Amino acid sequence: MQLKKMLLVAASMLVFSGSALIAADFDWMASLNLRSDSDPYGYKSGLASRFRTPETQLSLILKSVGAPADAYMVLRLAELSGRPPEYVLKQYQGKKSKGWGALAQDLGIKPGSREFKALKGGHDMYDFDDRRDDRDHGNGNKEHGKKGH
Fold it and tell me: How far apart are the first and last CA of the chain?
């Protein structure tokens, strides 16, 4: 019984801490968190493959963020800004209360730019599990090489 309470409290804390960072523009992050919850190893493998990130670096990022989708955002912002993931992670840790849009702007990704629109448009982790269909935010994903869609 006590284990159930602890799990419920932990899940609630995760939901509430992550929800402050997920603005309406980035509501697609919830699908990534669900994917990670259902298959954490597959999600981690998908991140490693998508961003060509070494296992040790990826493990550090995943342990340092509030939710699995936050790790995706750190890596994606690093890619879009041309900054190392470690730099973006440090910025995230210091400014996460401002939200992802503000962090993107601080990293030089201008609102209205192609990069910002792609970021708001959704994730590009479709190769992670092509059987899932959560492409409702697909207005920026074609350029990221979805296969089979």
Answer: 45
